[in-house]
Amino acid sequence: MVEIKRSDLSSQDALTASGSSEASEDSKYRLIYSKSKVYVNPTAYARDNIPGFVALVKKESAHPTYLLAWIPETLLNEKGPTEWDKFVRVEEHAGADEEDEDAVLIDLPVQRPESYAFSVPLTSIYSLIVNPPSLSSWYGSIAINLISGSTLPTLHFHDDESRSFHMPAKSPVESHSQPMSYPPPPSDSAPKSSTWGGEDLLAKLRSYCHILRSSLQSNLYLVDPSREDIETHSTPLFADDAVDDILAQSSYANSHSPIPAHRRPRPLSSPQNSYSERSSILHKSLSPVSSSSAAASPARLALLQSFSHITRHAAHAAQQILSHPLAKPIVPHLPDPVKSLVNANGDLEWGSWVEKGGVGEFESARVYLARWARIVAEEGERARLREAQALPAGSADLAEEDSSLGIFELLQSTTKLPRPKSSRDPKHPVDEKMWRCWFGPNGTPKIRKEEMRREIFRRGVAPAVRKEVWPFILGVHDWQADAAERARDWEAKCNQYRELKEQWWGVPEVFDRQDVIEERHRIDVDCRRTDRTQPLFAQATPATEDSENEKGMHMRYSTISPQLGDIGAQAPTNEHIERLASILLTYNFYEKELGYVQGMSDLCAPVYVVMGGDEEMTFWCFVKIMDRMKRNFLRDQSGMKQQLLTLQQLISVMDPELYRHFEKSDALNLFFCFRWILIAFKREFPFEDVLRLWEVLWSDYYSTQFVLFVALAVLESHRDVILRYLVEFDEILKYCNELSMSIELDSTLAQAEVLFLSFSQLVADIDRREAENASSAKNLRQRRGHSVSGSSSGAPAPPKRTLISDDLRELLKAGQ
Predict the structure, then answer these.
(1) What distance, in Å, lies between the first and last C-alpha atoms of the chain?
(2) Per-residue pLDDT tens for 578-597?
(3) pTM, whole model, 2 decimals?
(4) 668 and 557 both lie in a single domain
(5) What angle separates helix 575-590 from helix 600-610, to the nearest 10 degrees?
């Protein structure tokens, strides 16, 4: 939620905002309208919601000014019960005239930045976004946009708590109480159409300004719109019966209509015809018609019959194609409405395709078509691989590189460079036997660190030895040390972890400090919902408490929400979740400058699972991971911006066509890759695949930023779909988000390796040609120098090409 400060408003808003220094202390405002229990939601948590009053006030002057205000209950409480009673009284007498002698005068409370209070003149409001209560949102809301471009806090109307909706309906004869339900029935004192608080407020605002509902966006209401806004938001391009008016002038006008009378279009002269005044552009282009009741029904019927013939023939053709035996493999992957066309025997029922297919009413058709195309392409690739495996090895020299990992489209169209191949062999991971062979009797490694990194990149690590291998990959253990040296170093690390934990564990003055409480809350919320499908975190049994150990009590309650009343609203905890939270809270004291940031739990939880709940080892592995990825969590997001910029440059070099498409689609910010890079594809792959991917990334065999080539490989795998079907940024964003849990890891890593090797060759070729050009230019200058006497000053060197930036060259640096 954005805090509204005086600097955010225009000069006109600032002069009239509450708390203005220019307003005299004894200035009074006439309270015209008030409604209680209107909330502002600063965060996503219900406990942080702020209740208040929305009010309409009048500032008395030669030219009265009307202001819309929202005042939190806390500010009214500070003014005392008298001021509170004024707001309640006005709410109870909503029908009173503002010019009544018994009008209520108030002082607007002084605004504080943290209170979210505001008061702005109606003349400074540009539009209102009105969202009535619905099945998905029990409470309606109104967002207020100012002419200056600022947006005020969204107001949420809790009508089930508001006094105005709980008061009994009043009549001129008698007043009696009846049970109320939500939404409450309209009362005599309120407009008949008022069904919720926001509509009641709109009805009151209409008495003091002109409010126009937009024809382009149903929930947009313009306040005192300009002529341009009125023309834009009120004139429909085509009215509903404009076609009837056109066809009424055709030769079908006097023909017999087989349509029942109650279904025929109304005559143009009928007073019930809302479009008889011809307000649309299409209507205005028509010439006047007579007032006769000439019916356009036959013409409409003929037009609709033509459309029905087209639809029927298209459906018949689709049925013939999809019912063919060759189309059988892709039928299960088709959307439900298309499945219904497969045959006419009812084998595949039509059903509720919106519910089964997960296709909402407002989903983009291009995104849905792109997803369908991707599924069909993947199924076709699988079928091709099955056929290739069934056929004997051919002697033809294929132009493409076929393998079990798919066909890679290499991007060396401008140079004749050798085609790189993937070296990965994930079917033979580093197992316990191979791992033991790498060490001598005293624990000294027999192979170099580079060889270890290469084998882990190529093969991966078997699950049985991950707990031993990961500390070496991450650098927790020194590769060159022997077993005794590693044991001493590890003992020192364990002591350091205990010292860090002692800073808060069992220390109430630190544990209950406000900043620590805030960190505990953030960590607790994230840990309770991270990887809950894993057995360690899936248990719902609470941790055992040692009531005799004071520090044990603090450890138990260090990882729960600081407010015990909020526990019921969250997922249950257990011992392992609390240990995970302890590790993250200790890291907050280890890295005090950065602290804990949302997303760190996603990186720490898999390490905790692999380490079998070992706190010390999980902590130090997590420290090494954060040393690699700390820039991802900087508060100003400079690290993420730099990585996305580097990925943008990489796409421009490796796939200029895709880069131009992103440029046209306003998608060069690459926000759809943000989550991929932020937590290293943690939410894009199944849990086991995430572990295998991270091992490859941590090996740093080719590059310390290999994650960017993985991101490029994912985009390249779907480039054809993106180029063909997705032309808007939001479509690309939605499509990429829906790739989660559908990306094949081994083929992606193999393609990422090929892309890196292709990029490396491309950079080397560019450098070689630049060196040759520089050498040729030098020889040419020397020959010219001999022919021209007295020419001692050499010509300036040609400028160096900047095709490959320094950021891109950093991608070629491997781990040490």
Answers:
(1) 45
(2) 999 999 999 999 998 888 99
(3) 0.54
(4) no
(5) 120
